[in-house]
Amino acid sequence: MTSTPQAQAPEGRKARPEHLSHVVFIAASAAMGGFLFGYDSAVINGAVVAIRDRFEVTSEVLAQVIAAALIGCAIGAATAGRIADRVGRIRVMQIAAVLFAASAIGSALPFALWDLALWRIVGGVAIGMASVIAPAYIAEVSPSAYRGRLASFQQAAIVTGIALSQLVNWTILTIADGDQRGRIGGLEAWQWMLGIEVVPAVLYGVLSLLIPESPRYLISVGRRTEARKVLRDVEGRSVDLDKRVVEIEENMRHERKPSFRDLLGGRFLFLPIVWIGIGLSVFQQLVGINVIFYYSSALWQSVGVNPASSFLYSFETSIVNIVGTLIAMVLVDRIGRKPLALIGSGGMSVSLGLAAWAFSYKTEVGGEVSLPGLQGTVALFAANFFALSWGVVVWVLLGEMFPGRIRAAALGIAASAQWVANWLITVTFPTLSDWNLSGAYVIYTVFAVLSIPFILKWVPETKGKALEEMG
Question: What is the extent of the structural domain holding 307?
Answer without folding.
Answer: 19-211+254-469
